[in-house]
Design a protein that fits this description.
Layout lengths: L6 E6 L2 E6 L4 E4 L9 E3 L5 E5 L3 E7 L10 E10 L5 E10 L5 E3 L3 E2 L2 E3 L6 E3 L5 E2 L3 E11 L2 E8 L2 E6 H5 L1 E3 L4 E5 L4 E4 L5 E6 L4 E5 L3 E3 L2 E5 L6 E3 L1 H4 L1
Parallel strand pairs: 3-8
Antiparallel strand pairs: 1-2, 1-5, 4-5, 6-7, 7-8, 9-14, 9-17, 10-13, 11-12, 14-15, 15-16, 18-21, 19-20, 22-23, 23-24
């Protein structure tokens, strides 16, 4: 697209950045308000769709932020103010997954941020392969024109392209018994501490699938009364 075509405008490394909106990927928090022309990603970055030479309107907005892990394509009508010519531009929105996801595409590259350039670098010696489990976090951003999401894999942080995360499936699991290794605070579904605690060495039942709230990993209590951090059990 030309510089005058519809673009997404946001702050990148403290600077105003504009990129073509067509074909972009974004991650939005569960339960967040969503305006197709002005929305906030799960990491708090605000994205505004602009087009000085076009009148923009929403052609299709199937985004439902109540559906964790769901992805959908937003379509916008762009009408040239001078010629009246219309075109459709689209982008994809992923609602932050709640639980672990499993790769199904053979393998996907994983990345790390270079300490000098602050750009993603492909970790070619340690790709993420089919059936690998990853826990997506809310830490997602566009870097050098591409959307990346931080995920936890075996407890370690790594980066995946958001488009690759879209093409995963949710991990299912049942209830398991775990031993709390030290006194654990119980958190609500927004990651806020409650007044409830669980004493050390107590055996409890939890959902076996790790859950993410923000950038932290949790076990959900089997009775759905709250969450405890994975570190309280697994170290």
């Amino acid at each position: 697209p030309s510089d005058k075509a519809p673009q997404v405008e946001f702050q990148e490394d403290g600077k105003d950045t504009k990129l073509p909106i067509n074909g972009q990927y974004f991650q939005v928090a569960r339960g967040a308000k969503f305006d197709p022309l002005d929305f906030t990603a799960s990491d708090g970055t605000e994205y505004k769709i602009t087009a000085p030479d076009y009148d923009l309107s929403v052609a299709d907005n199937p985004v439902d932020t109540s559906k964790a892990g769901n992805s959908s394509t937003v379509k916008l009508d762009a009408t040239n103010k001078k010629t009246g010519k219309k075109m459709i531009v689209s982008y994809t929105v992923l609602i932050s997954p709640k639980g672990e996801r499993q790769l199904v595409n053979g393998w996907d590259p994983q990345y790390y941020l270079d300490s000098e350039t602050h750009l993603p670098v492909w970790a070619s010696g340690s790709n993420l392969y089919n059936k690998t489990k990853v826990l997506p976090t809310s830490d997602t951003k566009i870097i050098d024109g591409t959307s990346y999401t931080k995920v936890k894999q075996d407890g370690k942080n790594t980066l995946m392209k958001t488009i690759d995360l879209v093409n995963t499936k949710p991990v299912t699991g049942g209830t398991v018994t775990k031993t709390v290794m030290h006194k654990a605070v119980v958190y609500d579904d927004k990651g806020k501490a409650t007044s409830k605690t669980i004493p050390a060495f107590k055996k409890i039942k939890v959902n076996s699938v790790h859950q993410s709230i923000g950038s932290q990993s949790y076990y959900e209590l089997a009775d759905n009364s709250g969450y405890i951090k994975v570190g309280n059990i697994d170290g």
